[in-house]
Specification:
The complex is a heterodimer of chains A (134) and B (404).
Chain A (H helix, E strand, L loop, with lengths): L6 H8 L12 E7 L4 E9 L6 E9 L2 H14 L4 H5 L3 H8 L5 H7 L1 H16 L8
Antiparallel strand pairs in A: 1-2, 2-3
Helix pairs in contact in A: 1-2, 2-4, 2-5
Chain B lengths: L3 H5 L3 H4 L4 E2 L10 H13 L10 H21 L7 E4 L2 H16 L5 E5 L8 H10 L2 E5 L9 H5 L6 E7 L11 H11 L2 E5 L11 H4 L3 E5 L10 E5 L1 H6 L10 E4 L4 E3 L13 H17 L1 H20 L5 E3 L10 E5 L5 H10 L2 E2 L1 E3 L4 H7 L4 E5 L6 H17 L3
Parallel strand pairs in B: 1-13, 3-4, 3-5, 5-6, 6-7
Antiparallel strand pairs in B: 2-8, 7-8, 9-10, 11-12, 12-15, 14-15
The chains are: A alpha+beta (134), B alpha/beta (404).
Chain lengths: 134, 404
């Protein structure tokens, strides 16, 4: 059993939660990790008042760390307030992943978080609000 | 007789035995002789070159000049004045794109470069093309990972002004002989640049015999320190080119009205050069020459042949590039079904095996191959069959862990 690739991580990779796209997405944002080509796209459907993440889904391809961490993030933020999702910090995601990551692999683990936060922040900025990013 | 296990004893970091180092194509390890040569400068008489009329400066200048002569000799350059010291091969190529490209190429002129180029031999020309309207034509990589002369012939036109390519690919390991390229370039009056970052460390190179106009390489990939690179250019071309960077050391005379340039190669070496690193590189090429570059290449063929054979036994593993060692430099990139290169590299790292994962600064090539990333194992003078065995065991273990 590898320290890095524990059962929970492999399970999220092999059986990703909330993988796919959302037909009625309010927000859709995609980024890549130029180092290794990991690619993640996240669709977000907000509640009518724009304050809550009603539904969320991710798609993309890349290494286990990037894809499994995105799956974990989906489970973590669905139903949360947008403000709370925007306040999600790196350590929280690294704790979800729960594996000892080197700095270069942290970029893989944090790609999903970056995509989600940038998507939410851009949407807020487009509406003339502050981005909500710390 | 070349004995890699004996060679390895000269490398302090490798004698520790805690790491199976298979990333020499990114940067090589350093032998004691190089470490000592640089340490000696600082401990026995360090001062800036070309400045002082006192003993330490004179000695540093003499050692710097000697290093240039050794590098010239190593690469078969007719004279030391045709060797310009830069930071690395990337800077050498940028120097060419700025100084040669912006002076001698104009809108509509065509540059041929191969699809397998490292970003260092890609981006400077992309920028030049955008800025000056120079046209880039890409020499396609064949399905076997090689660059064919037939494909080149189809690209050469009377407007071809420059052909630039890697003698050895840093991803596919593909070896391309510069000689027939030079012959074709001559026929249309085009110049030839060879990116030797992956060839100069691994095989005998004689730039005069090859007949190339320019040749670049990096010291740190050939047992030397970081921060020192080489540009070889035929003297008449270097003399016709304007300076790249300007400032101290590269001038002949400066007044309030203007400046005149120093002789080549100093015209291209503005500011205090990395002369301690150059001296380290001098020690590195001395070390390589003592091993004998024909022996170095023979050893590389042996270990590459063994690695190709062992890797091909792994179910589903796809080797990118030529499948025989005689056409292959010491870098082997591969993909494994259902295993991302970064995951494989992390699992290998946990076993103390260092490989490279990603696009190896060759994104266009990976795009052409239809993949985003690959894993690369690369070898050098200190690589041994047991390193390959460790890699194979590591790959098998990773496949089990990842259930691939």
């Amino acid at each position: 059993m590898s320290d890095l690739y524990r059962e929970n991580l492999l399970d999220h990779y092999e059986n990703p939660r909330h993988r796919g796209s959302l037909a009625g997405a309010t927000i859709s944002h995609e980024e890549t990790n130029p180092l290794c080509g990991d690619r993640i796209r996240i669709d977000i459907a907000l509640s009518d008042d724009g304050e809550t993440i009603a539904d969320i889904a991710f798609s993309g391809d890349g290494c286990i760390i990037s894809q499994a961490s995105a799956s974990m993030l989906m489970e973590d933020v669905i139903g949360k307030a947008v403000a709370d999702a925007l306040a999600t910090d790196r350590q929280h995601v690294l704790d979800l992943v729960g594996a000892p990551l080197t700095p270069s692999r942290m970029k893989c683990a944090l790609l999903g978080l970056k995509v989600m936060k940038t998507g939410l922040a851009n949407w807020r900025l487009a509406r003339g609000e502050s981005s909500g990013l710390a | 007789m070349f004995d890699a296990s004996k060679v390895r004893q000269d490398f302090p970091l490798l004698t520790r035995g805690d790491t199976v180092f298979l990333d020499s194509a990114a940067s090589s390890q350093k032998p004691e002789a190089v470490l000592r040569a640089m340490d000696d400068v600082y401990r026995r008489g360090y001062a800036n070159v070309h400045r002082g009329v006192y003993a330490w400066s004179e000695a540093a200048t003499a050692a710097y000049d000697a290093a240039r002569a050794e590098v010239a000799d190593f690469l078969g350059a007719p004279s030391p004045e045709e060797i310009v010291f830069t930071r690395n091969a990337t800077e050498s190529l940028n120097l060419l794109a700025y100084s040669y490209g912006r002076t001698f190429l104009k809108a509509g002129d065509e540059i041929i470069l191969s699809e397998l180029e490292h970003h260092a031999n890609f981006v400077p020309w992309l920028v030049l093309a955008r800025e000056r309207g120079v046209v880039l034509r890409f020499w396609p990589v064949g399905v076997d990972g090689t660059l064919s002369l037939a494909a080149l012939d189809a690209l050469i036109t009377p407007r071809t002004r420059l052909i630039t390519f890697a003698q050895v690919s840093n991803v596919l390991g593909t070896i391309t002989d510069p000689r027939p390229v030079v012959a074709r370039a001559r026929a249309v009056g085009a110049r030839v640049i060879v990116d030797g970052a992956q060839s100069a460390p691994h095989m005998p190179v004689n730039v005069a015999d090859l007949g190339v106009d320019f040749f670049v390489c990096s010291g740190h990939k050939m047992l030397g320190p970081t921060g020192i690179g080489v540009l070889y250019g035929r003297r008449e071309l270097l003399e016709a080119m304007p300076p790249f960077l300007t400032g101290g050391d590269m001038i002949s005379r400066v007044s309030f009205e203007g400046a005149t340039w120093n002789e080549v190669p100093l015209k291209f070496e503005a500011g205090t050069p990395a002369f301690v690193e150059a001296i380290g590189l001098g020690a590195a090429v001395r070390y390589l020459s003592a091993l004998g570059m024909a022996n170095v290449r023979a050893h590389e063929i042996e270990i590459t042949d063994y690695a190709l054979e062992r890797l091909s036994e792994v179910p589903g593993l796809r080797i990118l590039g030529p499948d025989t060692a005689d056409r292959h430099g010491g870098a082997i990139a591969f993909t494994l079904p259902r295993v991302h290169p970064h995951d494989l590299a992390s699992l290998l790292d946990q076993r103390g095996i260092a490989v490279r994962a990603g696009h190896h600064c060759a994104q266009p090539l990976h795009e052409r191959l239809g993949i985003t990333a690959s894993t690369r194992a690369s070898f050098y003078v200190y690589s041994m069959p047991q390193d390959v065995d460790a890699l194979i065991e590591g790959i098998e273990s990773a496949r089990k862990t990842l259930r691939a």
